[in-house]
């Protein structure tokens, strides 16, 4: 009896394998075809005939170069598609258009340099898109056009220099945006304007030196803003004041701060805003002026306005002295005038006195 069951199982195993042709490529193709693993097999193209019942397909660590259009047309049940660590540089329009239930797409560590509008067609329910370690250099309004349900977008370690204002306009469900280790130099107002669900904004490891005043104000759900390792030498108070959230942690270490009185005042005011938490304030170091280089801002903080106070004092004293001197001079002139006038009067009097005679 036992042997019979065993043979029966073997037959089922064999028959199911026989209609999952992927095992021929070396894939792990279990009986129900739900989870198919084809990672690290040196595949140069996408396998055709992925069973329609597959929900997770792992193709990571292969040598795939192109994602042709409609390649997944029979795989409507796919929920997770892993293609990280391949050599993908071309994604044809409509590659994913039939994957209406796809929730996670991992394309990290490939050679993707642009995203067309056609790339995201059909991915309205995608929740997580991993695109770290690719070759993207700019983002525009087409890049993520149909990703209305996206919650997590990872663009870490690309070469992104510019983000057009409408790039994230459709991503109103987005909760995490990772732009770490890119080449951004400034942040323009409007860039994040539709991201009202965004909780985490990671901008660490860029070259940001300028941020327009209201750039963060639309981010009303933001709990973490990471600006570590950028090129900020100063910030404007208004930029952070305009963050209207319940509570936000802001990280600022690894920036070349110009420790002057102005910076001291900005941080003093920031500390007084209850909803903002400058978690790494004690680690901020000065780059300028040269005498303060590598000193902790916290250590020199109280002295930054002394020089200014002294200057103000000197100016005040100088002004006071000048005014005083002017007043004295004026007073003396008046007296002189009076005296001269008096003399004139007496002279005139003398004359009139004389004429009376
Ligand atoms: C594989 O074959 C079995 C039995 O022949 C059948 O029940 C099953 O539906 C087939 N699966 C696929 C994905 O074609
Ligand atoms: C893939 O190719 C590499 C290098 O040619 C080789 O070392 C490795 O064994 C191959 N892997 C498989 C699963 O064929
Ligand atoms: C991957 O593609 C890049 C350019 O697209 C090429 O330089 C590189 O040699 C390719 N790597 C492999 C392993 O084929
Ligand atoms: C984003 O990608 C980087 C690099 O691949 C990875 O280390 C990090 O864990 C990812 N972050 C998230 C939140 O997915
Ligand atoms: C980004 O990735 C490339 C290789 O993928 C690596 O050479 C570079 O050091 C990485 N940059 C950062 C800042 O991690
Ligand atoms: C902020 O970014 C830095 C640099 O990448 C990282 O070391 C740190 O863990 C991040 N902090 C948080 C709270 O995510
Ligand atoms: C400050 O820097 C020290 C030493 O580099 C590190 O251990 C600590 O975690 C940092 N604190 C914060 C809040 O990042």
Automatic annotation (TrEMBL):
Keyword line: Cell membrane, Leucine-rich repeat, Membrane, Repeat, Signal, Transmembrane, Transmembrane helix
What are the transmembrane regions?
Answer: 310-330
Pfam families in the cross-refs: LRR_1 (PF00560), LRR_8 (PF13855)
- Major localisation: membrane
Query: Which GO CC annotations does the UniProt entry carry?
Result: extracellular matrix; extracellular space; plasma membrane
Return the annotated region ranges for Disordered: 335-357
Look up the signal peptide feature and give its range.
1-16
What is the annotated localization of this protein? Cell membrane
Q: Which InterPro entries match?
A: Dev_Immune_Receptor (IPR050328), Leu-rich_rpt (IPR001611), Leu-rich_rpt_typical-subtyp (IPR003591), LRR_dom_sf (IPR032675)
Full protein name: Leucine-rich repeat-containing protein 17
């Amino acid at each position: 009896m036992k042997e019979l069951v065993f043979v029966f199982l073997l037959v089922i195993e064999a028959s199911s394998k026989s209609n999952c042709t992927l095992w021929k490529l070396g894939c792990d193709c279990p009986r129900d075809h739900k989870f198919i693993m084809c990672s690290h097999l040196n595949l140069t193209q996408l396998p055709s005939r992925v069973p329609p019942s597959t929900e997770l397909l792992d193709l990571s660590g292969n040598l795939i170069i192109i994602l042709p259009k409609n390649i997944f047309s029979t795989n409507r049940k796919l929920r997770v598609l892993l293609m990280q660590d391949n050599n993908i540089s071309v994604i044809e329009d409509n590659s994913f258009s039939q994957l209406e239930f796809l929730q996670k797409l991992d394309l990290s560590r490939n050679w993707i340099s642009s995203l067309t509008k056609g790339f995201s067609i059909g991915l309205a329910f995608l929740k997580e898109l991993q695109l770290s370690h690719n070759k993207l250099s700019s983002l525009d309004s087409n890049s993520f056009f149909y990703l209305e349900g996206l919650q997590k977008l990872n663009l870490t370690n690309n070469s992104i220099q510019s983000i057009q204002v409408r790039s994230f306009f459709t991503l109103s469900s987005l909760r995490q945006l990772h732009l770490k280790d890119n080449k951004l130099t400034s942040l323009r107002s409007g860039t994040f304007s539709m991201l009202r669900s965004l909780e985490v904004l990671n901008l660490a490891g860029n070259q940001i030196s300028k941020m327009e005043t209201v750039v963060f104000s639309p981010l009303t759900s933001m709990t973490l803003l990471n600006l570590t390792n950028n090129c900020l030498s100063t910030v404007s108070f208004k930029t952070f004041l305009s963050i209207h959230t319940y509570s936000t942690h802001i990280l600022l270490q690894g920036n070349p701060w110009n420790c002057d009185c102005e910076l001291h005042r900005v941080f003093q005011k920031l500390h007084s805003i209850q909803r903002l938490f400058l978690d790494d304030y004690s680690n901020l170091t000065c780059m300028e002026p040269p005498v303060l280089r590598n000193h902790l801002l916290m250590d020199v903080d109280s002295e930054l306005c002394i020089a200014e106070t002294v200057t103000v004092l000197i100016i005040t004293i100088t002004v006071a002295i000048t005014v005083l001197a002017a007043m004295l001079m004026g007073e003396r002139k008046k007296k002189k005038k009076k005296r001269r006038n008096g003399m004139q009067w007496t002279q005139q009097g003398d004359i009139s006195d004389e004429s009376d005679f």
